[in-house]
Amino acid sequence: MPLLDGRTAVITGAAQGLGYAIAQAFLAEGANVVLGDIDGAAAATAAARLSADSRTLGVECDVVSEVHVDRLLAAAKSAFGSVDIMVNNAGITRDLTMRKMRLDDFSLVIDVHLKGTWLGTRAAASVMREQGTGGSIINMSSISGKVGNPGQTNYSAAKAGIIGLTKAAAKEIGFAGVRVNALQPGIIETLMTQKLSEEVRSARLADVPLGRFGTPEEVAQVAVFLASDMSSYLTGISIEIAGGRNI
């Protein structure tokens, strides 16, 4: 039997990149998948590309909006009857040194990553608690939240904050059978990381013992593990998917 058979997963930032790969992996394991993205048209297109049998749904969602996040989960419940898995994945970068970074660049990255993850975690925990059947919330942090990267004071701060949020939320909602965990990818081949200069890519690759960048599919498989009953006694943890970088 597929690992996620009959469950419904909601994934933010899912029109491309890691979110899309996770949606694809969840679908292959039997889940119904709701793709949220700030670009509603892209979310709908991605959902249609993933499945032609009504097991996917694309919904416009700006994760910094409480109204949008609540609407996303309501759409999932309306379409499939439950929300069993929530992946808070949406993110952006605005990389600059502190000297050059504007306050707006700092605030926007903090809002999308940290506030967006908090809103998604809070909303999903509420729905799962009311359902009474438990659930799995997966928050997308980053290895940058562990070690910090020059030019990413905003991003690194947000990703570190997600770890603290994950641990606190796990303690709050564990009594209801809701597990909250985090992923910390390293350098993964996505559109976001492909924009890095060759100098930066080479420097970061030199820190990876496995000698290569990861793939979205490798991150997605760990997300499947955390979403499934294989990790039924894990909560409040973060898993590094970084090829050994910064161990």
From TrEMBL:
Keywords: Oxidoreductase. Residues 7-190 form the Ketoreductase domain. The keyword ATP-binding does not apply. SMART domains: PKS_KR. The keyword Oxidoreductase applies. Coiled coil: none annotated. One of its GO terms (molecular function) is 3-oxoacyl-[acyl-carrier-protein] reductase (NADPH) activity. Its EC number is 1.1.1.100. One of its GO terms (biological process) is fatty acid elongation. Belongs to the short-chain dehydrogenases/reductases (SDR) family. This is 3-oxoacyl-ACP synthase. It comes from Cryobacterium roopkundense.
